[in-house]
Design a protein that fits this description.
CATH class of chain B: Alpha Beta
Distance between the termini of chain B: 58 Å
CATH architecture of chain B: 2-Layer Sandwich
Number of domains of chain B: 1
Distance between the termini of chain A: 41 Å
Strand content of chain B: 15-25%
Number of domains of chain A: 1
Radius of gyration of chain B: 18 Å
Helix content of chain A: under 10%
Number of strands of chain A: 12
CATH superfamily of chain A: monomeric porin ompg
Order of helices and strands of chain A: HEEEEEEEEEEEE
Strand order of the largest sheet of chain A: 1-2-3-4-5-6-7-8-9-10-11-12
Largest sheet of chain B: 4 strands, antiparallel
Number of strands of chain B: 6
Shape of chain A: globular
Structural class of chain B: alpha+beta
Shape of chain B: globular
Radius of gyration of chain A: 16 Å
CATH architecture of chain A: Beta Barrel
Oligomer: heterodimer
Number of helices of chain B: 4
Structural class of chain A: mainly beta
Order of helices and strands of chain B: HEEHEHEEHE
Largest sheet of chain A: 12 strands, antiparallel, barrel
Chain lengths: 202, 137
């Protein structure tokens, strides 16, 4: 596997981990940190309205290449359907590296959620100078209990993802906890080992 | 794959512990004589009784707006709504009944409650306010 392919995989894994909470409430900020076997990263975004967010994502340490880089990111809510017991969303997402204007990504992702069930998908195309690739994911989840406002909330999830570079599906369990403004997400795969994702909203 | 299975079992155990935590304090409740049994504009208040009674316990001589909200399916959605209303100086107290899809807002009696204004605030968080009932405490 070439260095460029591995670079692309590093970027892809990073981007995948940060799609779960793309936009906050109006005037809200979100800070995320992620650590896995490939990298440590941080992502901050601000939502001027509930329809879009602007942010910067920095790869603090690319553990494979021992390097670092950033994206400027925009996420836009294309469509939302609220019902009494559910919410469905469709987002456009994009990111551009300020160090290399030929390095960017764009795509869409969506989700449907009740207080008990979750289903989501994503599709993204990433462009590098000499390489572009598509990645997709599907995710489903169930809340084992229904917590009240302010309780500790838990989700048991299963995520499958595929990209053009490896051309196979990687499926693994994800456990998500959140309480108040904080969220912790733990996923494990034989292929990519532990993924830890922390998020705080303010 | 086998390793994944064991990891998943471990996660389930953690989840069970979290469930115990969340269920703590959900004991039985006597409904007799409580305000949540009140009819307002011909409609029965549909609220979490414990949550509602706790909310109004210190609000004698005030009024409470009970807003039905669609799309409020998670704690994060609710938190944004709470933060928006807390910024309003005329608001005395805010609570969210996530199970019932209600937001409870306490005002003084002289406050004229404007549903359109409330709708705008809820929409700024990405949810929709669908109904309003006002109860004098």
């Amino acid at each position: 596997m070439g260095i460029k392919s591995l670079t692309a995989i590093v970027i892809l894994i990073n981007v995948l981990q940060l799609e779960a909470r793309p936009i906050s409430y109006s005037g809200g900020s979100t800070f995320m940190m992620e650590s896995n076997n490939m990298q440590d990263s941080a992502y901050y975004h601000y939502s001027p309205t509930y329809k879009y967010s602007l942010g910067i994502q920095h790869i603090i340490k690319d553990k494979y290449f021992n390097s670092n880089y950033s994206y400027l990111r925009l996420t836009y809510l294309l469509n939302r359907k609220n019902t009494q017991n559910s919410q469905r969303n469709l987002y456009f997402q994009s990111g551009l590296s300020p160090d290399d204007l030929e390095h960017y990504f764009y795509g869409t992702h969506g989700d449907w959620e009740t207080r008990r069930l979750f289903a989501g998908f994503g599709y993204k195309k990433t462009m590098l100078k000499t390489l572009d690739y598509i990645e997709q994911y599907l995710q489903v989840g169930v809340a084992p209990y229904i917590g009240e406002y302010g309780d500790l909330h838990t989700w048991l999830m299963l995520k499958s993802r595929k990209n053009d570079l490896t051309n196979n599906w990687d499926t693994y369990p994800v456990l998500k906890f959140f309480k108040g403004n904080a969220l912790v997400e733990l996923g494990y795969s034989d292929t990519s080992n532990w993924d830890i994702h922390l998020m705080y909203r303010f | 794959m086998k390793k994944n299975y064991y990891v998943f079992l471990m996660m389930l155990s953690i989840s069970a512990a979290a469930q115990d935590h969340a269920m703590h304090g959900m004991e039985g409740h006597d409904h007799e004589g409580h305000l949540h049994d009140t009819m307002v504009d011909g409609k029965l208040l549909v609220v979490n009784p414990e949550r509602f009674d706790r909310f109004v316990s210190t609000l004698k001589g005030k009024q409470v707006a009970i807003i039905s909200v669609s799309g409020m399916v998670c704690d994060f959605c609710a938190r944004g709504i709470e933060k928006t209303f807390v910024k309003d100086k005329s608001v005395l107290k805010v609570d969210v009944d996530l199970s019932g899809g209600k937001v409870l807002i306490a005002y003084s009696l002289d406050k004229k409650i404007n549903f359109e204004e409330i709708k705008k605030k809820i929409l700024s968080n990405g949810q929709n306010a669908t109904d309003l009932q006002v109860v004098k405490i």
